[in-house]
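Possible regression after last week's pipeline update?

I re-ran a chain I had predicted before the update to compare outputs. Posting the input and the new output here so someone can diff against the archived version. Not blocking, just want to make sure nothing changed silently.
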Amino acid sequence: MANFNVYSEVSRHLFSEVERRLFAYQQMRREIASYEKDRIYTPSLHSGEQHRSSQMPDPTAHAGIALADPSPRIMLLQSWLGVIDKARGEMQRFAPELARILTVFYGLDRLHGRPSRESARVRIQLMMDLNISQTTLYNWRNTCVEWVKALAIHKGLLNPELPDDPPPFAL
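New output (post-update):
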């Protein structure tokens, strides 16, 4: 029983982490856009391409490229956005209803996210548009989160492993 509780706790933690990232989608996009605007980040500068003008080493250019490299936080945010966008694209292709739920429920298409006071209105509108019950809506929402979670685990953004030392069995 204790092992199931540990698994359940890890599963809840991963689910809530993915939901937190989904709700912060627009905020992550704004942060990346701000970084790219202020830091003049261009991926092609450090992609390993050799240009005619770069035949000889230039310490100033290398220092500039090092400064332009994105921080680990920006790279993490870019990875999360990539995973969410990929999941939404796959859902759009294979299950358009799930893509709609993911986009509307988590406010992925809104500039400022989904205000909390609109959450009931959003749920009701989704149920009416898709002609589904509230239970089905939440089941499909869970499926959306699990889809994103699977891609995030595959990309290495989440660690699904159980702790090495599970608590002893309770008698």
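Follow-up from reviewer: compared with the archived run. Helices lie at 2-23, 25-39, 59-68, 72-94, 96-105, 119-130, 134-155. Marking as no regression found.
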